[in-house]
Amino acid sequence: MEKNDWIKAIAEGELKEGVPAVIEVEEKKVLLIRSEGKIYACGNECSHYHGPLSDGLIAGHVVTCPWHNARFDIRDGRLLAPPGLNGIPSYETKVEKGQVWIRQTGEGMIAMPEGEDDRTMLIVGAGAAGNSAAETLRREGFAGRIVMVTGEAYGPYDRTMLSKDLLSGEAPAKWLPLRGQKFYERLKIELLTEKPVTAVDPAGRAVTFADGATMKADRILLATGGTPRTLPVPGADKAGCYLLRSRQDAEAILSELETAKTALIVGASFIGLEVACSLRTREIEVHVVAPEEVPLANIFGEQIGRRIRKTHEENGVIFHLGETVKEFTGRGRVSEVLLSGGSRLKTDLVVIGAGIRPAVEFLEGSGLVKEGAIPVNARLESSAEGIFAAGDIALVPDAHGGQPRRIEHWVEAGRQGMHAARCMLGSKDGYAGVPFFWSKQYGSSLRYIGHAPGFDQVVFRGSVTDKFFLAGFYVKGKLAAAASMGKARELIRLGQLLEAGKSVSPDQLEDKNFDLLSM
Ligand SMILES: Cc1cc2nc3c(=O)[nH]c(=O)nc-3n(C[C@H](O)[C@H](O)[C@H](O)COP(=O)(O)OP(=O)(O)OC[C@H]3O[C@@H](n4cnc5c(N)ncnc54)[C@H](O)[C@@H]3O)c2cc1C
Ligand code: FES
Fold first, then answer.
1. Which of 185, 187, 216, 186 is nearest to 202 (CA)?
2. Average pLDDT in the 463-474 region?
3. Which residues contact 227 (CB under 8 A, 6 or more apart)?
4. Most-buried pick from 51, 369, 424, 465 (CB within 10 A)?
5. Alpha helices in 59-175 (DSSP H)
6. What's the mean pLDDT in 379-386?
7. Separation of CA 437 and ligand 1 centre (Å)
8. Which residue among 54, 64, 65 is best mutated to probe the pocket of ligand 2, counting the most ligand atoms within 8 A of its Cβ?
9. What confidence score (pLDDT) does residue 26 get?
10. Strand partners, 94
11. Ligand 1: distance of its center to the CA of 334 in Å?
12. What is the mean pLDDT of the chain?
């Protein structure tokens, strides 16, 4: 199909209001939808991991992907919210003699803006937030200088893949980069690797690098993510004990997996459980040690936590819950682990998943950090004018008047990066995103939207046992978050309610006959 060719798509009568139709045009899937009386067409594949947008939710002119909630504008294919990077193909439509015709108008790619701008934007950190900010600056038409620096040897890559498909062997390392070098060259984004920043001068809007060089910028975005915590336990620094945050960490673990027969994971939160799953895929014997009795119960409640544990046990994981590690022992490298209950476990390697602390050490004395994080206003600007922060390091105000929060999720970091970029260009809008995350274990995805650290009630629709459910987390009768396996549309809808500051009662959420989608 040439870009300007009209293609006969579908009989108009087949398109019902709000019900998507998918057709194939030269091996590309095209989504057609009649929304509020108008007919739209756009690509049906999400630009993140190719999720089928027709299985997501379309509200007005916005389609939300069912897998990780990227959002696109169906009118022009524009990316509205990460984790997608590109937009999606866009089409114009016309109706003639009862037939819908479509013609492609765009590919969804970011173009290098024309014109001149003498401002410099410096982005410190090339992770989810930093990369999204750099791309957004160009998408928004900024033609000036963009410099993105990272302390790591690699440019932006998909960190979420490290504990999942990379360690399991299902994804090769070549799938990790978010973009190729040519992309940054085309968009004139200067990407500097192995260039850690060691100090920031907020008044001068300047940074110092480890090699002694300095750089001034008109706007600076700080997006340095997290530093994994180790354990204050003898032997935790022995060879064979690993943390997992970076691609380099993952490569070091991978190099052990060809020969390892047994692994011990410390921590039963997301990283620990995803690594356990990946290592079981390789048929390595896996032990998980954690102080809590039920994994992830603090986030999902006991019922979902127990289901997660059972799934792992069904796949051969051996839990040592209610226990901590007293000591890692072994000559030269770790070979045995002493637990608080007195038992000793032999192991070939250890992976410690004990959480992170925001990577803000280099900001000591800058006045930007409070209690280990960077407080920002609704525009994601720090206490210093022109210096912004996003992602795992940023303490962000709640749009609905709740407590400020620091979120450690990939999608949230990308969205904050996008918002920060717009504010660096002068937008006065406040950040109103609702956090979203997912975890994938043994082929099933568990998705969560909202923020409910102190929930006092959980209600369910569907079956946790069958891994097909929607759960609502309430604080004093008000919906604060929701989780789901398999009910993507309802979860997206609840996210939209949360974003609008609305709720749905526990009775309504529980009642399978109550139509959440038409609320
Ligand atoms: C293994 C793993 C799996 C995960 N899986 C999921 C998941 O499934 N779903 C989910 O929602 N979240 C997941 N997360 C969390 C998610 O990856 C983070 O919340 C997200 O990456 C945070 O983005 P960020 O941009 O704030 O920081 P990061 O992505 O960590 O990026 C920080 C960047 O800053 C650089 N940097 C740090 N210090 C300096 C310095 N001094 N100077 C210059 N550069 C510096 C780093 O090199 C890096 O480039 C996972 C995390 C890990 C480690
Ligand atoms: S596949 Fe669409 S958001 Fe991930």
1. 216
2. 97
3. 245, 356, 357, 358, 359, 361
4. 424
5. 128-139, 167-168
6. 98
7. 13
8. 65
9. 85
10. 101
11. 27
12. 96
